[in-house]
Write a structure and sequence with these properties.
Number of helices: 7
Number of strands: 10
Bound molecules: 6-phosphogluconic acid
Low-confidence stretches: none
Oligomer: single chain
Strand order of the largest sheet: 1-2-10-9-6-3-4
Mean pLDDT: 95
Shape: globular
Radius of gyration: 17 Å
Strand content: 15-25%
Structural class: alpha/beta
């Protein structure tokens, strides 16, 4: 990957701006999608929420990149969702739909929204795990499926998906998807867990903005990485790429690269 540096087995690529980062992430998505479909006939991906990925999704919806992805072979999951209905402004599903899914020929049966608005979030999470198992052709009670790509953002507190510091979901070692109470937000979320994240073939982080600099400095420091949720994303047999902007990378050795 051009202009990338390594921190242990993690690749870090620092881009000057969110726009440049989004273009690099969209190109990486398209590259991995084509490779996945070429290698095994499908591309299973988990999308991230938050604000940072919106531009990357918009770019994937544009003709030049849209044409490079065999959307009819793509299976879409989410890494996490807020406890709101799909039409709510806070919905990760809604954001991805507005920015990307409305514009691409993906089979609706292959778009797996997280029903995090359900009252019984734990039951909804179990059903989502069963749905993911069906879509991936694996045993719902066995090890998690190996997704081709997991896109992730990171919060200023080092949270990833909805695995917030000190919350119960971070300690989950068996289930792939759980409901999670997040006292720091006074909110509930549905989220995938570390067992699923660390089973992925490729993880791509998109992180931008000065607010993320402290956490990024910590998770890219091998001595301190484990102290934050994002630092515990280490696929046992997969790659991790951090696409970060100069503002986020200012407390790391990589900021000067951009
Ligand atoms: C969510 C996300 C979450 C997000 C971080 C960063 O539902 O909020 O999945 O993990 O990636 O909070 O969010 P920003 O990109 O908005 O900074």
């Amino acid at each position: 990957m051009p202009g990338a540096a390594r921190s242990g087995d993690v690749v870090v690529r620092c881009l000057p701006t969110l726009e440049a980062l989004s273009r690099a992430a969209a190109a990486e998505f398209a590259r991995l999608a084509a490779a996945g479909v070429g290698a095994h006939g499908h591309f299973k991906v988990a999308l991230t929420g938050g604000s940072t990925p919106r531009r990357l999704y918009e770019l994937l919806a544009q003709p030049s990149l849209r044409r490079q992805v065999p959307w009819d072979r793509v299976e879409i999951f989410w890494g996490d969702e807020r406890a709101v209905p799909p039409g709510h402004p806070q919905s990760n599903y809604r954001m991805a739909h507005e920015a990307l899914l409305h514009a691409v020929e993906v089979d609706p049966a292959r778009v797996h929204r997280m029903p995090a608005e359900r009252a019984d979030l734990d039951a909804a999470a179990r059903e989502y795990q069963a749905e993911m198992a069906r879509a991936c052709g694996v045993d719902p009670g066995g090890p998690p499926p190996r997704l081709d790509l997991v896109l992730l953002g990171m919060g200023a507190d080092g949270h990833v998906a909805s695995l917030f510091p000190g919350t119960a979901a971070l300690a989950e070692v068996v289930r792939w998807v759980v409901g999670n109470d997040v006292p720091q937000l006074a909110a509930r979320r549905m989220t995938v867990t570390l067992p699923l994240l660390n089973r992925a073939a490729h993880v791509v982080f998109v992180v931008a903005g000065a607010a993320k600099a402290e956490a990024l400095g910590t998770v890219l420091d091998e001595e301190r990485a484990d102290s934050l949720p994002a630092g515990r994303v280490r696929p046992s047999d997969g790659s991790v790429v951090w696409l970060v902007d100069r503002a986020a990378a200012r407390l790391t050795p990589f900021g000067a690269d951009a």
